[in-house]
Amino acid sequence: MSGNHVYKKMARYSAISIVRKQKGIVLLVALIMVLLISVVGLAAIRGSGLQELMAGNMRDHNLAFQAAEAGLRAAETTIRPELEENALPLFTGGGHFNDLNKANSEPKPPTLWDLDDWKSADNTVTTNMGLTLASGEQPRYVMEKLVVPITIAAAADGSGIDTASMDSFEEPEFYRVTSRGTGGTVNANVILQSVYKR
């Protein structure tokens, strides 16, 4: 009986000593777990903040893109095919120019890619569409009447050209429209360009 009692006492003593030895390890493991959870939480907070910034920037860019598209549409309505020739804008400046790529274009081409020139009424046309953007800027555009001569050349095999039908052929007019839209902030700008055949 006494041997059994000693055995129980030793088992209880060894269990208590194991518990005493593990108290420090439990604290260390708990601290490591808290540290890991904190790192994961901070990464999640940083990630959600970055996603919010990206969503805001994407929204601003989308607003600027839509404003630039609206500027293109507004410009193209001024040169619709159903308009008479005398209803077209004069291409003498103020946002309407003759081919700006030509070296001798009149008036002299503005430096349109400069931010200040986009705000100038001498070089651009404001659409005044009533868009209410946070930036307060309306879409602006520049329209160029392009000179594209059509040449009639003989076919390579020497076949003749029906010049009678070519006499009634009207050369199409081409217009290049460049539109600039601003989004929710003045830092979100989009420039779109289209060529319109009339």
Automatic annotation (TrEMBL):
Transmembrane spans: 25-45
Residues in the signal sequence: none
Keywords (A to Z) from UniProt: Membrane, Transmembrane, Transmembrane helix
Domain PilX/PilW C-terminal: from-to ranges: 105-197
Type 4 fimbrial biogenesis protein PilX N-terminal domain ranges (all copies): 23-73
Domain of life: Bacteria
Pfam family, one: PilX
Record protein name field: Pilus assembly protein PilX
Originating organism: Cellvibrio mixtus
Source lineage: Bacteria, Pseudomonadati, Pseudomonadota, Gammaproteobacteria, Cellvibrionales
